[in-house]
Amino acid sequence: MSVLDSKVPKGPLKTKWTDYKNHIDLVNPANKRNIDVIVVGTGLAGGSAAATLAELGYNVKTFCYQDSPRRAHSIAAQGGINAAKNYQGDGDSTYRLFYDTVKGGDYRSREANVYRLAEVSANIIDQCVAQGVPFARDYGGLLDNRSFGGVLVSRTFYAKGQTGQQLLLGAYSAMNRQIARGKITPFNRHEMLDVVKVNGKARGIIARNLVTGEIERHSAHAVVIASGGYGNVYFLSTNAMGSNATAAWKIHKKGAYFANPCYTQIHPTCIPRSGDYQSKLTLMSESLRNDGRIWVPKNMEDVMAIREGKKKPTDLSEDERDYYLERRYPAFGNLVPRDVASRAAKERCDAGYGVNATGEAVYLDFASAIQRYGVEQAKIHNIENASKDKIYELGAAIVKAKYGNLFQMYEKIVDQDPYKTPMMIYPAVHYTMGGVWVDYNLMTTVEGLYCIGEANFSDHGANRLGASALMQGLADGYFVLPYTIGDYLSHEIRTGKIATDTPEFDEAEKSVNDQINFFINNKGSHSVDYYHKKLGKIMWDKCGMSRNAEGLKEAMAEIKALREDFYKNVSVPGTATELNAELEKAGRVADFLELGELFAKDALAREESCGGHFREESVELDGEQEGEAKRNDVDFAFVSAWEYKGEPGDAVLHKEELEFNEIELKQRSYK
Amino acid sequence: MNLTLKIWRQSNAQAKGKMVDYKVTEISEHMSFLEMMDVLNEQLINKGEEPVAFDHDCREGICGMCSMFINGEAHGPDRGVTTCQLHMRMFKDGDTITIEPFRAKAFPVIKDLVVDRSSFDRIQHAGGYISVNTSGNTQDANAIPISKHAADEAMDAATCIGCGACVASCKNASAMLFVGAKVSQYALLPQGKVEAIDRVQNMVAQMDLEGFGNCTNTGACEVECPKGISLENIARMNREFLSANIKG
User: Fold this and answer.
1) How far apart are alpha carbons A333 and A329 in whole angstroms?
2) Where does the FAD-dependent oxidoreductase 2 FAD-binding domain start and stop, copy by copy (chain A) (predicted)?
3) A296-310 pLDDT, tens per residue?
């Protein structure tokens, strides 16, 4: 028996959540007023949780490193949010969303959690509309949908290419209502630097005021971590510059197990990198794959001619192009899941067919969509014998209405007009499915310490489907955590205010101060970024889109050596008692330098290919699926949850066996 | 390209600031403006000097964290972009670039180019929401049809990223484009109508309390807004405010 108890309720899958809600203990309103909850992070998960908990009557403190909760990186999500509303009448249902999510995650997620997610998905849309989120509508005034990768129905709701922004502003507005009532106290420009445990329970945090440098103690009856993913371990990713794993890693070091760190999503449609100075990568929404066709030249001569500037992509005829996704996956074509699309791009580029100077770019082409829409519009407007230019004009207008802001963003960055020439794209690190291990209640292995949103590991298995991150963040925050945490807090009504002048707080504050003083006084020879970039290169080269045992062993050793060098030679200018961006970065990179090693260790231990984790040693050798990823359900149908033991390399593995009662495990086929 | 930068340095809110000259070399035209600032800071750190503090986060033009007044314009010379999306191809070799913080009484400087925009948050606390519980037991999302036109217009207002460029560009340091955008988003949707009177009155009162100036219809805010928020939103807010005062 594993030490991990997922606490999944008994009973049929379809009624588990309802039964659970009917039988949990509740806290009476008068008692809620005496209970404090800390929420770290104010994105979709943290913002929605904070607003809901405050609305229920708890006293909430929120923490974010940005100057306002509205700036959390959920804001950058473009494409949309899934919900099983079946407004399109195309056969969608709670079960189908559940099934697609488990299959898309390559059968490495917990059935009960995913079913609950699918179940509450429809409420999210109702809730957001009631809050004034301006989702896209059709001419009849009803909500519009689009389709996303890995599924065969249209269940994605969207607000132009800014769905994350609108949903986050919705959660932020719900927070504002509670801030105005005094039920949420926001601590902006603050960073959580440790969790405080008293008698085994999470009882508070140590935070740094990023403006004054002051170290503060905050106590609570429960602590919720909603600090997002760890994609910036790669240095270059689509995450915000400040996105970090510090809160998640600090709780890991205090007893929260860290699950499946090797499950990373490399998003197929990002703008390729252009030089060493690059600070981040920019995503182009997956929704573009609804209308864009992905290709590289068929012939190597054309590749060379394009790289040398002698040919343009538009010079190549249809016969000279390899629409490799349509070729390899006729059923799903350009709408295969993200992990499949990314590996296919890498495969073509590794074979030498990359279309830019770095050799790491493929085309995403809208010419056929513009043509198709143009012909359709000409018919709608009764224009007979429309000229080629007219058709182009009509079609381009439709594409502009759908993706205008994305096209503008591309043009500003790359300085090319994507209406006239295909976009260049390449995969980039985007999302981390792995994270802090949580049970069905979203509680970590530390009592009273919860983890929600991207920061936890729970719902996406080894690969996340498009438009499901927003769904999970809001489901956790609005509709799941407020119930589960209540069950825990019902046992805290007699606890009373938690004091911060205790040895536990003293000790946590001291260790935070020690680390800060170390950085300020070290006066080494290299900047923090110097180390972060080196770490990113190891991660991308050896723990990137494909991995092998030898590379992973090297990565572990190299990261360990880099970490040792960091602690000898890192240089942090300025003082600890002022706004000091370098000091903030130093703490975050120190944590990435540990997390990266555990990541490689986890990837090494998982000797199978599943979802975003592709082991070169585990591929299909023959048959229709030749060359595709090979999962190993006999030996690896478990969640890897790592226990911290002083050094990342010494972490101890605990397995949560995954049981599939509703869904038969199959090889994913998108052919 | 090689550039001269004149940058506002101010060690904290109380300190007196001044412009300081820096040189940067070998800047690629493909860099973003903030990547150029990264190069400068790496150079300063390696020389043992203190890097320039500036706000930034998503670096894709949506979080609204980055600011900077570049050559006299919020977010610099390009249109429809934030500073993080501004590319160095907008500048020429040998240029001198002046970089200052967003300046307004309601945006005090915290350090160098970092300003305190919490006044924007406080305006939102005053009424930037619809009072609906997050129970999930609201009516079905399709129960109230909303015309595509109204939904699109509300969306256009809602794209505001709260960066403060409107305030920094305005000779009166007025926040009316920002407040107008939020008031408009809700005024255009049926869900927002119930609380319309209180909302506009409370948000405008807070805006005045924070020390933002009034609007004199110059329109600089609309020109400099990275998201193209239209002046119509100010007109709509004025209409809402006037009618609220008559009714209320």
Assistant:
1) 5
2) 36-470
3) 999 999 999 999 999
